[in-house]
User: Fold these one by one.
Assistant:
Number 1:
Amino acid sequence: MKISFDKISATPKSFNLALNDVVFSGALSKIDFNTVKLNGELKGDMEVCCDRCGIVFKTAIEQPLNLELSQKIGQNKDNLDIIEFLNGTIDLEYILQSEIDSIRSSYYYCQKCDGIEEFEVEI
Ligand SMILES: [Zn+2]
């Protein structure tokens, strides 16, 4: 799902897309000529890998995603929540895919391993 910067105004424009079992929904609105604000959330089930035993299992995710999208290079270099789309087109699939990749790269324990850890703490 690609949206041109030119088509977004100050009035929030809603969007909704899905990748596998994860739904990405929210709204886009323009802050200034080169900047668009994204207020959204990711919700659904995602396959992750247990960091202890390596088993693949599904986990429910639900997290807000608030970003600024810019079509101008080098704006707010200190702001990590800014994504540049220099061709003037916002690619929502790209945003969703990179968020899923970053969620997947954190640590997960399956139900079984989660229990083991608690047990060790009690001892
Ligand atoms: Zn495990």
Number 2:
Amino acid sequence: MSRLPLLALAPLGFAALPALAAPPAVVTDIPPVHALVADVMGDLGTPTLLLDRGANAHNYQMRPADARALQDAGLVFWVGARMTPWLDRALDGLAADTRTVALLEAETTFRRDFGDAAAHDHGGHDDHDDHDAEAHDTEEHGAEDHADHAHDGLDPHAWLDPANAHAWLAVIAAELSAADPENAARYSANADAASARIAALDARLAADLAPVRDAPFIVFHDAYGYFASHYGLNVAGSVNLGDATAPGARHLADLRDRLDAQGVVCAFPEAQHDPKQLAIVVEGTEVRLGGTLDPAGSLLDPGPALYDRLLGDMAQTLLDCLAQN
Ligand SMILES: [Zn+2]
């Protein structure tokens, strides 16, 4: 009787399971995680991607086929409950022998809080944001506490820092190897190759973005902190909050004040969201409306090439507007 809960709590616990002769059925949450997992699996298998093309990663309605894929999964890789509360709920109903890996919680993941963005280093806006006081006090709380204000505390958009791609490739290879030891060498080699490729891309992007490091810009939702801090970019604010929910009138008025105060150069709309809201914020100012950003790669072709494409497209869209002078 008492053995089952103990087993469920044991870390990994694969020693107790029979060795599998084949790669496990793998399910992933969003396109960039799917891409990294597809990279590590290579020819050995293809992970399932839950999020539909063009869907909002924070608010997704799973379909019956998604629920079946989850039921059949041996391994689930996802960012975590702060990113996709809809998947958190679905995972609650899974069999105990399904291994779920929340990458945001991996020991090697670099994590940042909302509010660590460059926008908050500029002073003079002391009254604009009363969320900051609690921002460092929320790590231990469950996702449910944050359903309505996920912009406090831990920022879940961690794939946008390439350092986390390296960390996650290693975690993914280790988990796949534990589930499928016969192919461990191949998972490891695939992860190493992907890491080397992403390191080369990262170096190129850092060089490309260096000239626009100081150019302040605003975005549609607060998803770009990891990308901005990795490349030293200057995000001056966002229309919507970190969970893509709409803020109040006071936040918008403050954002508009900041356009002038901080010399904002560009405003970037986002896939799945009407660019009109951003256009209204910058109306009558010198701020240029940039191209559409797609932080979760929701409009790209899923597959191993997507991660690189996502980062490259993001850098290029930023450059196309910020580099104009
Ligand atoms: Zn987001």
